[in-house]
Amino acid sequence: MRKVNGYVAHSAKEALVPFTFERREVGAKDVQIEILFCGVCHSDLHTARNEWQNTVYPVVPGHEIVGRVTAVGANVKAFKVGDLAGVGCLSDSCRVCPDCADGLEQYCDQEIFTYNSPDKYTGKMTYGGYSNQIITDEHFVLRIPTKLDLAAVAPLLCAGITTYSPLRHWKVGPGSKVGIVGLGGLGHMAVKLAHAMGAHVVLFTTSPNKIEDAKRLGADDVVISKNPDEMKKHLKSFDFILNTVAASHNLDVFTELLKRDGTMCLNGVPEFSHPSPSIFNLIFKRRQIAGSLIGGIKETQEMLDFCAEHNITSDIEIIAMKDVNEAYERMLKGDVKYRFVIDMSTLKVL
Ligand code: NAP
Ligand code: ZN
Ligand code: ZN
User: Fold this and answer.
1) Does a structural domain hold residue 17?
2) Which of these, 3, 28, 260, 332, could form a disulfide with 75 (CB 3.0-4.6 Å)?
3) From the CA of 281, how far away is ligand 2's center (Å)?
4) Ligand 1 centroid distance, CA of 189 (Å)
């Protein structure tokens, strides 16, 4: 076991504080990464505050991890010391079930998340990227394109793949009219990715001060979702809507914007469920409401390569580790353009 420094939540009501914990030794198939940057996802906040009622404390959040390889096990083939590497939300899975065989490890019943999952190596829980080092099986380690800004790549490991996967699954491309709901960490990546895929992109926001930014990021049109007249102009016109909102809200105002057979996919996982959707809105045009969870490892690599090809990264604000609690408060107010990323060199060795 080796000592690692990080930041931890000890309970739902307490601020995150410095923490020292143990990680396993580097196994034959493991990659050891010195973490250089870690994005701050809204899921980190939901988990730190036990909003999904599944948090096991102490919890070390963080699943948008990039850094440099500092050691590899004897059987590791794809990485060597000095390489850039990334770890996202997934750290392990059963490897044999149909989901794993299809490269969809995120849907494996035995998936192990990067934090707040049982850790078979330590007997504790997995601890995430708000720390200076991580050790992960190479199957779950991503190659990071060297041409992109490293700090701005970190959010691709969750916000990027979580939006890329449904956009691909529902075949978004030239000729599709796509709605993105919410311009936060996930939403701003969705706008960039859907634009790069060639779709006509409409951003729905509750924040009038984000209109100009949304256009700069690639939206063809921006709609204030609280304005019924603006919403009406788009009735029955969308092939696909990706909803990234982190709070409970009325879904009907969006389902009625879908064409026949259109789908709204939910990415957001709010603390409280959405009110039940109108069945009439669904049956009259055979519309669907779906959900999507992050993405598999193969698709995450595909997304990173797509981003390198199209020069896409996240718009970020770099913070020091000690400022993560303030960052959580600002994220709740929508006061970030559009992802906080922790510079891990600011994590003082305890
Ligand atoms: P975020 O940066 O906080 O963005 C959420 C956006 O939702 C905000 O920017 C805001 O956009 C909108 N919003 C927030 N409160 C709202 C309210 N009361 N009413 C209407 N809109 C509101 O969060 P994120 O990191 O992008 O994460 C978004 C959600 O996705 C979270 O619930 C997170 O846990 C979840 N998530 C899911 C997966 C998955 O695999 N499915 C993966 C990662 C994250 P506007 O200001 O533009 O309205
Ligand atoms: Zn996340
Ligand atoms: Zn499996």
Assistant:
1) yes
2) 28
3) 30
4) 12
